[in-house]
Amino acid sequence: MEDKTKALYSMIKRLQDGEDLQAVRQDFVDRFQSVSVHDIIDAEKQLIAKGTAVQEVQRLCDLHSALFHGKTEAEVYREEERVRTPYLIQILKDENLELLKRIKALNNALELDKSEEIEKKLLDLKQLKKHYGKKEELIMPYLYAAGIEGPSQVMWGVDDEILKELSKILRTKAFDPHTIQALLDRMKEMVFKEEKILFPLAIDHMKPEDWLETYADIQEFGYAWLEDVPVWEQGEEWKKEHAYTPESIKISLPNGELSLLQLVEIFQYLPIDLTFIDENDQLRFFTNEGKVFSRPHSALNRKVFDCHPPQLIPVVQDMLETFKAKKNDRVERWIPNPERPVKVVYQALYDHQGCYIGTLEMVQSFEHEKNILRSFQTDPKEL
């Protein structure tokens, strides 16, 4: 940095001495064309800190345009920020910008008291679930691993409250302006917390390979409001290098034998999604063809508790403890979604000696069956 500062001071001195601007500008380009605008700005700050008048440092702005190809320093700075910012963080920032636009548009609709427009814009906000999902499943587990739990747990809980309140307003069609405004304020507050707390923490504590792992899982969640999202070339290369290719090995089972490739293909066509949690509460395996829940690959080999919102962690812990103590060996629950009923079963697994070896989660959507039964009701001839 010292060399850059000296070079900049030398150019200021040449301008002060009346040297031709174009000559100094060419030297500036030659010297700094491979240097980040961030470094140039830092060097200029050092000049000011060492006593160079601000007015004199400002004369360097006449040189910047040649280096920045006609762009303003702020424009180049923003472009460099996008390159320096991890891909996932930039996606989340772009989604936040889109969210703020929609909040502003909804505020305008509230002022005009247009019910149909309000409902339409509220429905559009349901895409926020994709944004929160990426944040919760692709960033927070890494922060948990780094020992940073507080901010993540609080945000996850608030995210759930925001989404539940949004669903409630849409379900009841109670478009009370004060209720909606309070919800929008919470959304804006969450944007602030992400930008000022969560994202900086993630950038500080996540490693380069962590960002590559998250890139491979982004498609699992999708994008909120973004179209024509650019690919990350380094991430694409990483995905190719880590693509799974079944080995040509045979697996002997109690009732026959399958190749690994055959077994993988069978899993893809089962009408049920499986997740296996081992005896140490680590997530070891899943299938997710039904995509009832998001299942990022980065969750593998982590504690299963890191995959759940804070309010559910004690529930999961208690269930697994009862399985280990053999106080219970099965838990079944239904998610009462009228459009997509879902059955979830947790089955404790024990070896032939009765020792606990893990838990199998089985998730099945009955949306298809519900639609078939509905068609029977409307047209008995379908039977």
Tell me about this structure.
- Helix 1 packs across helix 3 (37-49).
- The protein has 383 residues and is α+β, with helices and mostly antiparallel strands.
- A hairpin with a 5-residue loop joins strand 6 and strand 7.
- The strands form two sheets. It has a five-stranded antiparallel β-sheet, with helices on one face.
- The chain folds into three domains: 2-83; 86-240, Up-down Bundle (Four Helix Bundle (Hemerythrin (Met), subunit A)), CATH 1.20.120; 250-371, PAS domain (Beta-Lactamase).
- The chain is built from 17 helices and seven strands.
Topology, element by element:
Elements (H helix, E strand, L loop, with lengths): L1 H15 L4 H12 L4 H13 L4 H5 L2 H7 L5 H12 L2 H26 L2 H10 L3 H11 L1 H6 L4 H23 L4 H29 L2 H14 L11 H9 L8 E4 L2 E4 H10 L3 E6 L4 E4 L26 H12 L5 E6 L6 E9 L5 E10 L1 H12 L5
Antiparallel strand pairs: 1-2, 3-4, 3-7, 5-6, 6-7
Helix pairs in contact: 1-2, 1-3, 2-5, 7-8, 7-9, 7-12, 9-11, 9-13, 11-12, 13-14
